[in-house]
């Protein structure tokens, strides 16, 4: 390798390491500041061993969860929790998180509008409660350990794993929106995941007849993302249209689509992951359902190391689910495997 090229490579590597360390340091500081504000009972709800099975017990439906919920925090603690949440996201990602949480109040208004019994309204309020989002920390946050944290509630699951202050994984991460578009009231027109839908449609609409035949894997959209809340990401058959058969403009559309999902995460880390994806060879784009607006549809993009899924079928195609999975990196599986091999003598 020429000396100049080698220097550029080393500079890029140094920048990447520094970026990961900066993110990990931000997270550790925010996590420790948050936990320092908690009383003994709150810590019992928040803190888990890194090896706990709870770390991989993720979901995205409105159900009871472990972890400390916002309704069990003081206002000051909620602000500290948001500081931690913000360390893992880009500006647009953090905005999406807050918009998704705010939709719980809208769902409460819609679902309680016809209820006359106060007990029924109270039941709906319990189910559709923007304070029912939970924060959990696994292991001891530091720059010299393996640890992780999760923020989760209805239509959100953000999972992070850090090792020795510089290796970071941000999967699985789930963003959903119900409704996908608010169609009446003072917030009419808000589409929390608009780019995720629009970039997918742009790419699908650009395909010629032959390409469309390859990309369309089902005339009917699937009722939900196919991977669900599986512990380990399912390696789906790479059906659909290979990017090797894309035009230059279609490649640009596909890259915009993938980056929209990926760059909801902290941009320094997302950029590094994006560079990895670019070296992995062709991606596959698959579509199911209709290309017409307001009709059920589904798409996925699959590469060697990742899968992103998008589904909009529920509530008359006005209810979006999206997920990003890393085949080897979900919940830091690759980092944990390295740790066991290097530090505990586990054979490969």
Overview of this protein structure:
It is built from eleven helices and 13 strands. The chain folds into two domains: 3-171, no CATH class; 194-328, no CATH class. Helix content is 43%, strand content 18%. By secondary structure, it is an alpha+beta fold. Helix 1 (3-36) runs antiparallel to helix 3 (75-87) and helix 4 packs antiparallel against helix 5.
Topology:
Blueprint: H1 3-36, H2 40-46, E1 47-48, E2 68-69, H3 75-87, H4 91-112, H5 118-127, E3 134-138, E4 146-153, E5 156-163, E6 167-169, E7 173-177, H6 194-206, H7 209-215, E8 216-218, E9 241-242, H8 248-262, H9 267-278, E10 284-289, E11 297-302, E12 306-312, H10 314-317, E13 320-326, H11 333-343
Parallel strand pairs: 1-3, 8-10
Antiparallel strand pairs: 2-3, 3-4, 4-5, 5-6, 5-7, 7-13, 9-10, 10-11, 11-12, 12-13
Distance between the termini: 31 Å
The radius of gyration over CA amounts to 21 Å
Helix content: 40-55%
Helix/strand order, N-terminal first? HHEEHHHEEEEEHHEEHHEEEHEH
Number of separate structural domains: 2
Tell me the structural class.
Answer: alpha+beta
Total strands: the figure is 13
Overall mean pLDDT stands at 91
Parts with pLDDT < 50 across at least 5 consecutive residues: 4-14
Beta fraction: 15-25%
Report the biggest beta sheet as strand number plus sense, adding barrel if it closes: 13 strands, mixed
Query: Which shape, going by the Cα principal axes?
Result: globular
Q: What's the total helix number?
A: 11
Pfam family, one: DUF3500
Organism: Phragmitibacter flavus
InterPro entries: DUF3500
Keywords: Signal
